[in-house]
């Protein structure tokens, strides 16, 4: 009777349908000395589980690795580069804003004309940059139309 139950439990175990209580029952049976001859092959499997349960990991795990230090220093270097870039940008932008002095045409018409010309030249420069970018898009469209003829 017990032997039939153990054989059924082994089948269920290898199909992955056993409960924890049934697995414990199998471990108890295979840890005993009177195991049926045809089931001796399974004794090593369940014996391994009880042996592995008693093993303990005693090796020390290092907490800090060199890789973490490298990542930390790389992030510090990247932040310094970003800060230098922002500082340089702000420095040059503040110089550009000082080029234009506030004046009215009534105070000094020639200075107002010069300031207006500088402002329009700056706008023109940025507008031309934008137009150059659009020309690349037009070239892309022409190439696409040649390849994919409608």
Could you characterize what this model shows?
The chain is an all-alpha fold and 150 residues long. The chain starts with a helix and ends with a helix. The protein has helices spanning 2-15, 20-31, 43-54, 66-97, 109-147. The radius of gyration is 41 Å and the shape is elongated. The longest helix is centred in the last third of the chain and has 39 residues, at 109-147.
Poorly predicted ranges (pLDDT <50, ≥5 residues)?
none
What's the shape? elongated
Number of strands: 0
Q: What is the number of helices? A: 5
Q: How confident is the prediction overall: mean pLDDT? A: 78
Report on the biggest sheet.
none
Q: Residue share in helices?
A: over 70%
| Order of H and E elements | HHHHH
Q: SS-based structural class?
A: mainly alpha
Radius of gyration (Å): 41 Å
State the end-to-end distance: 82 Å
Portion in beta strands: under 5%
Quick structural gist:
The protein is mainly α.
Keywords:
mainly alpha; 150 residues; 0% strand; single chain
Helix and strand arrangement:
Layout: H1 2-15, H2 20-31, H3 43-54, H4 66-97, H5 109-147
Helix pairs in contact: 1-2, 2-3
């Amino acid at each position: 009777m017990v032997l039939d139950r153990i054989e059924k439990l082994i089948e269920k175990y290898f199909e992955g349908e056993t409960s924890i209580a049934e697995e414990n029952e199998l471990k108890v049976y295979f840890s005993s000395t009177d195991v049926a001859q045809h089931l001796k092959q399974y004794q090593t499997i369940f014996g391994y589980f009880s042996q592995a349960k008693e093993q303990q990991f005693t090796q020390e795990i290092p907490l800090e690795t060199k890789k973490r230090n490298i990542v930390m220093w790389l992030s510090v270097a990247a932040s310094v580069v970003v800060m230098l870039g922002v500082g340089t940008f702000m420095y040059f932008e503040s110089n550009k804003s000082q080029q234009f002095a506030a004046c009215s045409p009534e105070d000094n018409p020639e200075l107002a004309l010069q300031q207006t010309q500088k402002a329009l030249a700056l706008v023109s420069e940025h507008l031309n940059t934008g137009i150059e970018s659009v020309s690349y898009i037009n070239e892309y469209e022409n190439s696409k139309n040649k390849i994919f003829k409608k």
